[in-house]
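Practice set, problem 2.
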Amino acid sequence: MMRNSRIIIIIAFSVLPGLSHAQGHAAAVEPLSDDEQAIVLSLSPLNLPRKDPTNELSGNELAISFGRSLFFDKRLSVSSTRACASCHDPNLSWTDGKAVPEGGSRNTPSLWNVVYNRWYSWDGGADTLWAQATRPIENAKEMGLDRFALTKRIYNNDDLRRGYETVHGKLREPVCASDPAITNETCLDPERADATKILVNVAKSLAAYLETIISNSSAFDKFVEGLRTGNTGAVQSYPEAASRGLRVFLRSNCHLCHSGPNFTDGEFHDIGVSPKDGTLPTDPGRFEGIHVLTESEFRSDGGYSAAADPKLRFIRAGPDVWAQFKTPSLRNVVLSAPYMHNGQIATIDDVIDHYSNATSSTYRHVHLESTVKPLHLTSIDRSNLIAFLESLTDPVLIQNGNFRR
């Protein structure tokens, strides 16, 4: 189940519920044009990722093991009642199944294939997976455990301290975190630097684990491999409804944003998701994310990064990025309802309805994507498109955070 420190899980496609759209066969499907086939071949395979150069623990087996234990450990929250897995439940395709979590304003994204992301969070407020992992730990609306309390908790719990020291070396007694007379504000370096480094080490261990959550073996992948190798049996076994839906996907230009083997361009767009009450959007999205990233002490070009990433040189927070949000991957998308950054679209059918009737938004965004035009899909088109999206599912069996083949 481990291959190059990446976990890949596959079981029979037939056990996954809710795939009725992808079943059944009808008349012959129109063949792909040469241009269409070239696009399809660019969508698979999703190869195993390289190690993250900004995280020296990327691919480290000890860090992966420690990170996994932390991910399911409720002691990583100030109340000891919430773990990372509380919102990213593996049994809910690494989401919480809610529109937005309690006290939050944005939908909890799935963790499938996060290792391939260029930016993290809906607004791109972090530029590495480990930097993103620091955010919910200290966020008062999420886990609320500041770095000093985190240091104290790791030091005072034997199993946490052993796990930490196995990966990161000896942990010295944290005076600031253990002496109630010393506040976080009055705690001076090197104690403050120690607490920050411990937070980073924890986040990098979590990231090493999160890198292993990979999905890359769907019915669509088998179909593309058949195209690439000339295996007519593999091509013909692909559901015909999904084949028709693939053509809808291509001819509707969905691939312009949902591109590449992870079905996302990794960038930010305004697709006209109107607030339910008909008001103008108040969430600045990417505009805010760039400011958060610019001011972050954990930027990939900062002192805690193992290697600088040059992509930060090209980001600018202009008005054109207001209310833009990151393009999510479509892999396993039928398992991660509800949808959009605010979770206000309940079903995959409703998502398709949004794109089919793009001009029906209650307002027109100033910077609405020029590619977002009403598709006017027929009911058959919609059914086939859903069948295609279902074919991007990599069937998995996950029990209590353990992966089983």
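Problem 2, part (b): a different protein.
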Amino acid sequence: MASNITNKTDPQSMNSRVFIGNLNTLVVKKSDVEAIFSKYGKIVGCSVHKGFAFVQYVNERNVGAAVAGEDGRMIAGQVLHINLAAEPKVNRGKAGMKRSAAEMYGSSFDLDYDFQRDYYDRMYSYPARVPPPP
């Protein structure tokens, strides 16, 4: 059985850690994670948290094989998202920060709400569009 600790502060061990996301931890236990990932190499640490886990190998060569072999695998009704723990996740926003319309919609055009409101008023103001009766 591997340790509960994965060393996230040691720069040399960063490349030997695997992040396992979208893990159904209500069903999948630490022993299950160890059994699945031990076929790729010797595990020195495994920590399971709510919805995700980390596995640390002795050798960083094992990480690539584990990522390639297990990413996208369905376990307990959920598809796993597996990557090198040291890799930054792309498009990960900071919690609590508002995103601009450009970030949300992939455009450099910021929405002008006054313009949209005026346009809506002009398009749907029925009394102004209908001529008075003769």
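Answer key, part (b): The beta strands are 17-21, 43-49, 52-57, 74-75, 78-79, 81-84. The mean pLDDT is 76.
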